[in-house]
């Protein structure tokens, strides 16, 4: 039997019970579609997080005061408080060869008022370099001036939401607002970019770091953001930072340096595991579709007992009968699989259209993997009915009408 | 051409042992026209099935065209059935979803003959059996006589050396049965051995040789002189 004969014979047989074949196709299509759609969602989540991280800036290292590592040995006699991470600590890092930019960060909230309007707003104290380190964009005016970071200039840059709530429709530039008990002149407005890893740039006031330290009355920075000169220099930058700050802190390792890469690869690992497990859960529906194929074929073998008898009488061997029914199972699986691919892609397209900011995309491996699983399910669950058909006694099969 | 030596066939039906054939010895020459008669359950169909390689003897030997086919594998048996033997059944046994022409084509499809070579042969056969106008009809749209003609056409398309017919007229009225029998006898005249299992003594009289089975034994083997 030639291949094309095998396929056309099978398709004709499947057309003989359209409803049953159709429902099986539907089940298989749902299975494959579910695998593609769910893995696309998980992959979308991964890409979203990755995008958020890269929007933070490139080649970033983040320095936190305190050491997030447990060490052996006896507990210290006196409570060990982490040394402050000071502005001078941060500025000293600028001398490191692998370091391109340094942005010290001081963070807190303070009452901000303009005229009679008054709100508690997150305050970010930093330097001019923050603009480039975090890839922030200006909507109007300019960012903090690039002067001596120790100077507590009375200027500020505000987010769009702050402007709307405090100043209403007027242009904010040149207005004086009150933060805590100090007055600051608005010199710029940040471009709206939505949330960026927990920091809402729209709802934020940026002031010089020296002003912020004064405002919060604390010498300690919240953290320091450092941009390495190049991607390859991130490990060198980390080493240099640790060395320099250990030296400055009397030999104590009391800071933590997080590299963006490390965080990102951790997130990637988590999301890859998530994608796989979600895909695995969806693959259960493929199993169910496979069982449905088995059911359809078992009914078909029973109904077509006479036909099987004729085929044997006309010279079909057991192997040929087996192949006919196996081909039927595989045709159902493949056709259902392709329908599912279409449905999955359509679903992905629909989600992309409805939520353009969420990067829903199936990972490259998921459509072929879903198809392969569909095929395997078809072959696996088709095997039993096929061999049952092949083993039918021709005489008994022919005696049934 | 066909040689059975001491063939026994024993069935186990529940806890009962049925001796369907007992020590059957039979030689059939090429182009012989043979009827097999006997009461129900005498083993007629079993004999036909064993000769057609749809069933295997419990003991004994079966030689087909000088070759021992008793213990062939399933694949080899299938091939012998395909090439050397044509079946015709009482209930026609056409594939209901296939047209008359497709049913006739089926043995060629199973034999793996490419579509190009098939079409001419199928057209020829359809014409020879007077089915040209009905070739695209499904079995359900054909009369009993037409269905049996399709079945005979299907049995002959591989040019077998023997046609085995199990009550080929049993489901047809007298006139149609006569036509079908004429068709089979014509094939026999062209050199194909014809074995017919029947209840109809009329057919028995037309055949050149006649055997009678009772309880799995050949009790009568008579050649008609005509």
Explained architecture:
The complex is a heterodimer of chains A (401) and B (226). Chain A has twelve helices and twelve strands. Chain A is of the alpha+beta class and 401 residues long. In chain A, strands 2-3-10-5-7-6 form a six-stranded mixed β-barrel. Chain A has a two-stranded antiparallel ribbon with strand order 8-9. In chain A, helix 2 (18-55) runs antiparallel to helix 8 (260-303), helix 2 packs antiparallel against helix 11 and helix 8 (260-303) packs across helix 10 (318-354). Chain A is elongated. Chain A starts with a helix and ends with a helix. The mean pLDDT of chain A is 87. Chain B has a single domain (31-57, 74-223), classed as 3-Layer(aba) Sandwich (Rossmann fold). The mean pLDDT of chain B is 90. Chain B is built from seven helices and ten strands. In chain B, helix 3 (100-110) crosses helix 4 (115-128), helix 3 (100-110) runs parallel beside helix 5 (144-156) and helix 5 (144-156) runs parallel beside helix 6 (174-189). Chain B is globular and about 45 Å long. The chains are: A alpha+beta (401), B alpha/beta (226). Chains A and B meet through helix 1, helix 9, helix 10 and helix 12 of A and helix 2 and helix 3 of B.
SSE layout and pairing:
The complex is a heterodimer of chains A (401) and B (226).
Chain A: H1 3-15, H2 18-55, E1 60-65, H3 87-92, E2 99-114, E3 117-126, H4 130-133, E4 138-141, E5 155-158, H5 160-167, E6 176-179, E7 182-190, E8 195-196, E9 199-200, E10 205-208, H6 209-216, E11 223-228, H7 234-248, E12 255-259, H8 260-303, H9 305-313, H10 318-354, H11 366-391, H12 394-399
Parallel strand pairs in A: 3-10, 5-7
Antiparallel strand pairs in A: 1-11, 1-12, 2-3, 2-6, 2-11, 4-7, 5-10, 6-7, 8-9
Helix pairs in contact in A: 1-10, 2-8, 2-10, 2-11, 8-10, 8-11, 10-11
Chain B: E1 2-13, E2 16-28, E3 33-37, H1 44-51, E4 59-64, E5 67-68, H2 74-84, E6 85-88, H3 100-110, H4 115-128, H5 144-156, E7 162-166, H6 174-189, E8 193-197, H7 201-206, E9 209-214, E10 217-223
Parallel strand pairs in B: 3-8, 3-9, 6-7, 7-8
Antiparallel strand pairs in B: 1-2, 1-4, 4-5, 9-10
Helix pairs in contact in B: 3-4, 3-5, 5-6
């Amino acid at each position: 039997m030639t291949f094309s004969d095998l396929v056309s014979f099978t398709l004709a047989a499947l057309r003989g019970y359209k409803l049953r074949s159709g429902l099986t196709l539907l089940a298989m299509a749902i299975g494959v579609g579910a695998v593609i759609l769910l893995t696309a969602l998980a992959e979308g989540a991964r890409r979203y997080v990755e995008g958020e991280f890269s929007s933070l800036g490139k080649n970033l290292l983040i320095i936190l005061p305190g050491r997030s590592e447990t060490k052996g040995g006896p507990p210290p006699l006196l409570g060990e408080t982490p040394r402050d991470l000071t502005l001078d600590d941060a500025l000293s890092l600028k001398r490191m060869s692998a370091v391109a930019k340094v942005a010290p960060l001081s963070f807190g909230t303070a009452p901000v008022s303009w005229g009679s309007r008054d709100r508690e707003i997150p305050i970010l104290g930093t330097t001019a370099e923050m603009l480039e380190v975090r890839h922030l964009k200006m909507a109007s005016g300019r960012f903090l001036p690039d002067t001596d970071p120790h100077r507590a200039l009375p200027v500020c840059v505000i987010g769009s939401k702050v402007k709307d709530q405090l100043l209403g429709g007027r242009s904010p530039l040149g207005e004086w607002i009150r933060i805590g008990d100090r007055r600051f002149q608005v010199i710029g407005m940040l471009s709206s970019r939505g949330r960026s890893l927990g920091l809402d740039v729209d709802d934020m006031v940026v002031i010089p770091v020296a002003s912020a330290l004064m405002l919060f009355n604390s010498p300690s920075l919240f953290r320091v953001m450092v941009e390495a000169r190049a991607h390859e220099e991130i490990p060198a930058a980390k080493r240099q930072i640790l060395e320099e700050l250990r030296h400055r802190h009397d030999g104590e390792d009391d800071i933590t340096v997080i590299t963006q890469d490390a965080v990102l690869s951790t997130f990637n690992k988590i999301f890859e595991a998530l994608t796989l497990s979600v895909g695995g859960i969806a693959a259960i529906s493929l199993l169910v579709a496979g069982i449905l194929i088995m059911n359809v074929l078992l009914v078909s073998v029973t109904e077509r007992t006479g036909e099987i008898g004729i085929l044997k009488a006309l010279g079909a061997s057991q192997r040929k009968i087996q192949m006919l029914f196996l081909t039927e199972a595989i045709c159902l699986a493949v056709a259902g699989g392709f329908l599912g691919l279409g449905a999955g892609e359509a679903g992905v397209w629909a989600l992309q259209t409805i939520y353009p900011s969420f990067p829903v995309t199936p990972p490259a491996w998921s459509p072929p993997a879903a198809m392969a699983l569909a095929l395997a399910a078809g072959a696996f669950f088709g095997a039993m009915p096929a061999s049952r058909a092949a083993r039918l006694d021709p005489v008994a099969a022919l005696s049934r009408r | 051409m066909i040689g059975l030596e001491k063939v026994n066939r024993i069935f186990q039906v529940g806890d009962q042992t049925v001796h369907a054939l007992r020590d059957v010895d039979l030689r059939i020459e090429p182009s012989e026209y043979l009827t097999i008669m006997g009461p129900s359950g005498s083993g007629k169909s079993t004999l036909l099935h064993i000769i057609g390689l749809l069933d295997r003897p419990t003991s004994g030997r079966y030689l087909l065209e000088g070759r021992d086919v008793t213990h062939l594998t399933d694949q080899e048996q299938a091939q012998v059935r395909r090439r050397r033997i044509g079946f015709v059944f009482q209930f026609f046994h056409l594939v209901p979803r296939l047209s008359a022409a497709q049913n006739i084509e089926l043995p060629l499809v199973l034999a793996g003959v490419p579509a190009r070579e098939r079409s001419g042969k199928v057209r020829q056969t359809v014409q020879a059996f007077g089915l040209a106008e009905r070739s695209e009809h499904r079995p359900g749209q054909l009369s009993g006589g037409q269905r049996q003609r399709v079945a005979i056409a299907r049995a002959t398309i591989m040019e077998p050396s023997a046609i085995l017919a199990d009550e080929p007229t049993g489901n047809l009225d007298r006139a149609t049965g006569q036509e079908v029998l004429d068709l089979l006898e014509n094939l026999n005249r062209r050199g194909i051995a014809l074995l017919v299992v029947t209840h109809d003594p009329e057919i028995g009289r037309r055949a050149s040789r006649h055997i009678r089975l009772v309880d799995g034994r050949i009790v009568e083997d008579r050649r008609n002189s005509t």
